[in-house]
UniProtKB/TrEMBL annotation:
Protein name: Citrate synthase
SUPFAM superfamilies: Citrate synthase
Transmembrane segments: none
Organism: Sphaerotilus mobilis
Protein's UniProt keywords contain Transferase: yes
Length: 437
């Protein structure tokens, strides 16, 4: 809810042009915003803010982050309380509908999601068109986009029933699609969902069971993966969510908009960080392990090397990432349950964490381990291949994307997204005929 503030901002110009009053709005918490919507009409000028460092692109009621305090709230609830008291599907209900479900609402929601876990059988043939060694995120971008070719009764973004069924289908089918992408790359038969299992246990069944061997999901691992899903479910207007909003703002169908989000998430500065982090640990291990950390850190500090410490730093959290604290806890629990405390890669990660937390370069820049530093280690311990990590993130973030997309479509102020630019290229010039160039 945007409340007009009594305070106004005044924009004045040193060339004597007329000053302009700009309204200010207050949110429930967090910084106020200066409304510049009439700026161009009144002054002929745009604002300039590459990377959206100071620009609110929408108003939203879903997720709130205080980067300085290290606070993350879904619909007002602290992430720590959700991670400790709720499961992923309760969190999905919260993000989609605004509140945690009661017992009856939860049973109804779980049953609606569970009834949509299978995918159209023909999707198997579509999947077969991919090379077996394709990156799972390439496969996921294709599969999610292809849902719009299979589910025609949920593609009208302006129809609330279509939006609702698309949301349920996406949440229900993402685990099936991720598991299919994995089984395909491993050359194993697909496993159909088992609806008597919980959402997360069912995903583990589809990943790790085979037609000849049942898989008994271990409770500690199910809880750990469910927590990964909760912690990654939404993160306000990050790059992939903004991509989903921008893509959906043209009126395209929800599956196409979510496929755009999957594509954006793939990048190593965003969802690809957990994969990049594990690959980085593997490289340090190959260089010689813990003894080589100092050398690696020297490369990271050298601006010309282009080497970054993956899994460290965040655009918004400048003191600590509250998700990282929870994931660190889970990381120790999982490695303990699996007896992997002496795993060399885990030992290396802990040594790297210690050095980076004490090193002046990282301390001065407030670079702390982010959630992906630990979630990669947990996923590897569970047996999820490194190349699938970002697809797991996409599975979890789907609910956030769809909640944000539906919020945008229901917002009376929503318009097609159309950023402007500062043009710095050539001014008008004439074409010289080819022979004379
Ligand atoms: N390793 C080494 N130096 C870094 C790192 C890093 N991971 N991150 C930032 N810096 C330095 C950067 O070089 C700059 O130094 P200086 O002031 O001397 O030029 C300073 O810290 C500020 O960095 P920035 O690039 O202005 O920060 P940003 O807010 O634009 O970037 C980031 C945020 C997440 C893209 C970046 O920290 C990064 O690339 N981290 C590694 C990738 C990663 O782990 N991403 C996952 C984020 S969590 C998952 C999610 O929410 O998607």
């Amino acid at each position: 809810m945007m409340t007009p503030s009594d305070v106004k901002a005044t924009l004045s110009f040193s060339d004597g042009s007329a000053a302009m009053d700009l309204p200010i709005y207050k949110g429930t918490i967090g910084p106020d915003v200066i409304d510049i919507r009439k700026l161009y009409a009144q002054t002929g000028k745009f604002t300039y803010d590459p990377g959206f460092l100071s620009t609110a692109s929408c108003n939203s009621t879903i997720t709130y982050i205080d980067g300085d305090k290290g606070e993350l709230l879904y619909r007002g609830y602290p992430i720590e309380q959700l991670a400790e008291n709720c499961d992923f599907l309760e969190t999905c209900h919260l993000l989609l509908y605004g509140d945690l479900p009661n017992v009856a609402q939860k049973a109804d929601f779980v049953s609606r999601v569970t009834n949509h876990t299978m995918v159209n059988e023909q999707m198997q043939f579509f999947l077969r068109g991919f090379r077996r060694d394709a990156h799972p995120m390439a496969v996921m971008t294709g599969l999610v986009g292809a849902l719009s070719a299979f589910y025609h009764d949920s593609t009208d973004i302006n129809n609330p029933q279509h939006r609702e069924i698309a949301a349920i289908r996406l949440i229900a089918k993402m685990p099936t699609l991720v598991a299919m992408a994995y089984k395909y790359s491993a050359g194993q038969p697909y496993m159909y969902p088992k609806n008597k299992l919980s959402y997360t246990a069912n995903f583990m069944h589809m990943m790790f069971a085979t037609p000849c061997e049942d898989y008994e999901p271990n409770d500690v691992l199910v809880r750990a993966l469910d927590r990964i899903f909760i912690l990654h479910a939404d993160h306000e207007q990050n790059a992939s969510t903004s991509t989903v909003r921008l893509c959906g703002s043209s009126g395209t169908n929800p599956f196409a908009a979510i496929a755009a989000g999957v594509a954006c998430l793939w990048g190593p500065a965003h969802g690809g960080a957990n994969e990049a982090c594990l690959n980085m640990l593997g490289e340090i291990q190959q260089m010689g392990g813990v003894e080589k950390i100092g050398e690696f850190i020297r490369q990271v500090k050298d601006k010309n090397s282009g080497v970054k410490l993956m899994g460290f730093g965040h655009r918004v959290y400048k003191n600590y990432d509250p998700r990282a604290k929870l994931m660190r806890e889970t990381c120790h629990e999982v490695l303990g349950a699996l007896g992997l405390e002496n795993d060399p890669l885990f030992k290396l990660a802990m040594a790297l964490e210690k050095i980076a937390l004490e090193d002046e370069y990282f301390v001065a820049r407030k670079l702390y381990p982010n959630v992906d530093f630990y979630s990669g280690i947990v996923q590897r311990a569970i047996g999820i291949p490194v190349s699938l990590f970002t697809a797991i993130f996409a599975l979890a973030r789907t609910v956030g994307w769809i909640a944000q997309l539906n919020e945008m479509i229901g917002d009376p102020e929503y318009k097609i997204g159309r950023p402007r630019q500062l043009f710095a290229g050539s001014a008008r010039r004439d074409v010289t005929p080819l022979a004379a160039r």
